[in-house]
Amino acid sequence: MSLPKPGPMSLVPFVSVEGMMQLILQQGVEGMLVDLAAYIEDDFRRWEQFDKTPRIAAHSPEGVIELMPTSDGRSYGFKYVNGHPKNFQSGRQTVTAFGVLSDVDTGYPVLITEMTLLTALRTAATSALVAKYLMPKGARTMAMIGNGAQSEFQCLAFKAICGIDTIRLYDIDPNATQKAVHNLQGKGLTVVACKTGEEAIEGADIITTCTADKQFATILTDNMVGSGVHINAIGGDCPGKTELHRDILTRSDIFVEFPPQTRIEGEIQQLPEDHPVTEFWQVVTGATKGRTSDRQITLFDSVGFATEDFSALRYINELVRQSDAFQKLDLLADPDDPRDLFGMIERYGRGMDAA
Ligand SMILES: NC(=O)c1ccc[n+]([C@@H]2O[C@H](COP(=O)([O-])OP(=O)(O)OC[C@H]3O[C@@H](n4cnc5c(N)ncnc54)[C@H](O)[C@@H]3O)[C@@H](O)[C@H]2O)c1
Fold this sequence. Notes:
This protein has 11 helices and 17 strands. The chain is α/β, with parallel strands linked by helices. It folds into 2 domains: 8-117 and 308-347, ornithine cyclodeaminase, domain 1 (2-Layer Sandwich); 127-304, Rossmann fold. The strands form 3 sheets. It has an 8-stranded parallel sheet. Strands 2-3-4-5-6-1-17 form a 7-stranded mixed sheet. Strand 8, helix 5 and strand 9 form a beta-alpha-beta unit. Helix 2 packs across helix 3, helix 2 packs across helix 10 and helix 3 packs across helix 4. The longest helix has 19 residues, at 116-134. It starts with 10 loop residues before the first strand and ends with a helix. The structure holds nicotinamide-adenine-dinucleotide. InterPro entries: NAD(P)-bd_dom_sf, ODC_Mu_crystall, ODC_N. Pfam families: OCD_Mu_crystall. This is Ornithine cyclodeaminase.
């Protein structure tokens, strides 16, 4: 007697880190960033269809673990993600993630996937999408401050989506900058390694800050920021963790994903609760304007919102089914008689005894 096999409804497609790398290589990093940005833009355009809640965060002295759920009524998605700035000291990533997409009608998961690589891609795609609407006309140069895990993805997204051709890199750790210089070689960008933040922002139309430190840091001071630039602030994404001096905020027009989450986690945690901000989805739908003058400082106070991960899950779910870059996980119990969950164990046990 052979052991009962997992039933067809027990199997859920699973994209491992290796599977995700295969998908990225198949599409090309820039191709994937462009496709992802289109999915993210579509979901911002239908923003009002989504259930939205600030992410659920469990804080500890060294970091945070967060759950990020949302649904459009047909599909439900969530991401598990951590943020631990000191993890690199033990050879670990600052940010790791995985996620699930489910069918709302049955509640059954349809995809489970790694999301560490996918988060880097979706964060970069979102940043560049937002900049496409807000950056000064003819922007060509970006300062990239913080050259860690997210940084090359950011640079390539701004190249592919915004037409940036020059990147000026700075990190307090020169090894991080050298790593990024190496990784960006031959990618069609002019890459300049800088020794200070001030040097990096010289001539930059866009300034991206993507550092990791669990404190109120000052990566940019007020005197560093001239009129007309677009700031893409990625690393301030947790209570007590910001990157920009408060005075920059009061000079900028601030664009956010979901205000109830950004007010807790973003740069604007430094400002009064009623400080005016613009919700990015309204720029996408045309309900409100993005950049209105050459001299205006626009600031994307990015914290990362659940709909962006939902878009990424939706994209991977469609992409992976046209490939073999996934395995089938025996994840859901599928007894012959759906009410006989207990009996399934007994039948399995009898099969074990007979084998
Ligand atoms: N907004 C979002 O959607 C989003 C998504 C993913 C990650 N993040 C955040 O982005 C940040 C970067 O993530 P990562 O995975 O690249 O982290 P990482 O640890 O790999 O890299 C961070 C880099 O910042 C550098 N750094 C720290 N302090 C600095 C300073 N004062 N000046 C210059 N450089 C400095 C470090 O040396 C390091 O190289 C984290 O804070 C993370 O939480 C935000």
